[in-house]
Amino acid sequence: MADEALARAGLHFDELNKIRVLEPEIATQTNELKEETKEFLDKMSEFQKIVDSFIGLMDNVGGEVEKEKMKAIGSRNLLKSVAQQRQAQQQELQALITEKKIQLERLRIQYDSLLKDEQEQNDFIEQFILQK
């Protein structure tokens, strides 16, 4: 009966027979909630550490990817440059071949002309010797 009168007044006894303002069941639930909250905060803290570690790892991987990307772009540009240089060199060589062919044809014509002149001079010499 005294317990009921105290309960109506908002006072309760716990398992250690100490007077409490909260009911023992509510106090127990509050302590359980406090422990669960602490566990949740610990797990959240651990999760945050894992996330931070993961973000750091991804930043490193992203940096490495960017480096490799830049290397690939550089290699591709170098390859294009070499191809353009090779094409320019091929055009230069083609122009040189054309120039040499023109020079060959000019020298062939000159040679034929010189052969004709030689033949004419030989004929003239033969006629001159025969006339004497």
UniProtKB/TrEMBL annotation:
Entry coiled-coil feature ranges: 79-117
GO cellular component, one term: centrosome
Keyword tRNA processing found: no
Subcellular location: Cell projection, Cilium
Pfam families xref list: IFT20
InterPro entries noted in UniProt: FT20
Lineage per the UniProt record: Eukaryota, Metazoa, Spiralia, Lophotrochozoa, Annelida
GO biological process: cilium assembly; protein localization to cilium
Keywords: Cell projection, Coiled coil
Protein name: Intraflagellar transport 20
Record's keyword annotation contains Coiled coil: yes
Top-rank taxon: Eukaryota
